[in-house]
């Protein structure tokens, strides 16, 4: 069973947070081979990702490809996250304070024990990172990306960057690809703009999504639709450089417009981008996700994120100016965050933890809410971080979000590490190390079947409180959360 580690006032991370209970589940989920619960349906499609909401029971169910197999979903609906619900230290878990002369951080200690734990010393190493990647590759090679990329040779669906990526030698552990996967394409034909340009509209793709949406509604299930879940049309990548080219912002706006026009009379919740950080870092820095680029790790991740932020604002602008008043829906984006808890009370560790969160959440949310990237990113990245024009800043502020989605799986303790390199990649620039054990060797939380995933319930609570406080208490949906347990 999961340990509910106690928690005190938030001393780590970027800011002290309000005290409140969050809805993070601490139960072990059922194995992925069991049937989904009634009225909880998820399907990702090439081009549009359809998540669903049980209208009767008011629960949200959303899944990206790897979640369907590797992570059993634990989805909760948060209509409004109230960050300042209570100020009762007895009701909130409290971390034990270390009383060492070196003023180290307060500790988290499990209930029903008097043993004092000290912050662990083991660092989240490059080997851990490779183990994480290996697990993901094993998942994808097992066909876990649901419908992934099947059948792109047939009908009118254009290939995506993942279609091409899975055919590159060495990218998938066992050499398999996503041409068939669970054969979703044969059951539901997909892709609205085969070339990504909007010059050709695939009517079969439109009919495909109409069929899914109508079927869901007939069964009392409200769809949440994600416009982009990493599957960029391959033509946009090959002809224009994909997300590295400013033109993609306009193409994304055309694509979003087509979706709103064709499905918005029934779809009332739109998610523009799913965890854009993964596209930027794993797709254009490390190169383990499509399109597999790592040639310019100091430049491309930040350029890609820059264009993703502007693409989101463009889609929001299109929806609000043309459809929102008539269709009455809402639009937002989903971001991911591994909570960063300072490893000690030292100022440098606190700053490192705050910086770690800036490089995750602030990278995408600060421009839309404050008009620019976090100051810590500007300081560490310098001219490698693109700049918004005054007009772009105003445009983003006017087109931020109606709600936010949060994908959260685990947490880490963070210590400061000085970096003297003249040029630093995404992780080096953060000047931090991620730690996964206490000093006595016990992990930060129960370890799941995935090597990188530790169950840390207080981490999601702190993340929610942080978002609520920093971004004016937006409505939040937990769009991904959960673990896969070996049987």
UniProtKB/TrEMBL annotation:
GO terms for biological process: carbohydrate metabolic process. Residues 1-121 are annotated as: Disordered. SUPFAM superfamilies: (Trans)glycosidases. It comes from the Eukaryota. Pfam families: Glyco_hydro_1. Residues 38-47 have a biased composition (Polar residues). Residues 51-71 have a biased composition (Basic and acidic residues). Residues 7-37 have a biased composition (Acidic residues). GO terms for molecular function: beta-glucosidase activity. Belongs to the glycosyl hydrolase 1 family. This is Beta-glucosidase. It comes from Arabis alpina (Alpine rock-cress).
């Amino acid at each position: 069973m999961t340990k509910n580690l106690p928690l005190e006032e938030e001393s780590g991370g970027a800011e002290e947070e309000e005290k409140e209970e969050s809805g993070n589940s601490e139960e072990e989920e059922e194995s992925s081979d069991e049937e989904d619960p009634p009225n909880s349906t998820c399907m990702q499609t090439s081009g549009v990702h359809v998540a669903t909401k049980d209208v009767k029971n008011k629960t949200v169910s959303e899944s990206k490809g790897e979640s369907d197999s590797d992570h059993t979903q634990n989805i909760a609906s948060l209509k409004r996250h109230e960050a300042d619900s209570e100020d009762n230290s007895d009701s909130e878990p409290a971390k034990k304070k270390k009383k060492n002369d070196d003023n180290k951080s307060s500790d988290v200690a499990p209930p029903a024990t008097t043993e004092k734990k000290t912050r662990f010393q083991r660092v989240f190493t490059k080997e851990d990172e490779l183990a994480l990647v290996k697990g993901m590759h094993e998942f994808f090679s097992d066909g876990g990306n649901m419908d992934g990329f099947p059948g792109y040779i047939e009908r009118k669906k254009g290939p995506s960057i993942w279609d091409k990526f899975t055919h590159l030698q060495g990218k998938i552990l066992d050499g398999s690809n996503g041409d068939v996967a669970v054969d979703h394409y044969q059951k539901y034909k997909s892709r609205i703009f085969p070339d990504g340009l909007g010059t050709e509209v695939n009517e079969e793709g439109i009919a495909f999504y109409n069929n899914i949406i109508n079927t869901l509604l007939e069964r009392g299930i409200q769809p949440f639709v994600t416009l982009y879940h990493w599957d960029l049309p391959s033509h946009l990548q090959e002809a224009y450089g994909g997300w590295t080219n400013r033109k993609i912002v306009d193409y994304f706006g055309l694509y979003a417009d087509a979706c709103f026009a064709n499905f918005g009379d029934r779809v009332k919740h739109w998610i523009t981008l799913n965890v854009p950080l993964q596209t930027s870092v794993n797709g254009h820095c490390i190169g383990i996700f499509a399109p597999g680029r790592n040639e310019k790790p100091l430049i491309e991740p930040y350029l890609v994120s820059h264009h993703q932020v502007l693409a989101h604002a463009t889609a929001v602008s299109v929806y609000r100016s043309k459809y929102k008043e008539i269709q009455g829906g809402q639009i937002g984006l989903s971001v991911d965050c591994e909570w960063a808890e300072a490893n000690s009370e030292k100022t440098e560790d606190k700053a490192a933890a705050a910086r770690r969160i800036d490089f995750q959440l602030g990278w995408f949310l600060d421009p839309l809410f404050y008009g620019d990237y976090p100051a810590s990113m500007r300081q560490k990245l310098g001219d490698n971080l693109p700049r918004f024009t005054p007009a772009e800043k105003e445009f983003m502020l006017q087109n931020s979000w109606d709600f936010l989605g949060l994908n959260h799986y685990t947490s880490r303790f963070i210590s400061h590490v000085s970096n003297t390199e003249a040029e630093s990649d995404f992780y080096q620039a953060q000047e931090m190390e991620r730690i996964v054990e206490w000093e006595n060797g016990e992990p930060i939380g129960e370890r799941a079947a995935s090597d990188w995933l530790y169950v840390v319930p207080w981490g999601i609570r702190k993340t929610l409180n942080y978002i609520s406080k920093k971004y004016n208490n937006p409505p939040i949906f937990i769009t991904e959360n959960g673990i896969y347990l070996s049987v």
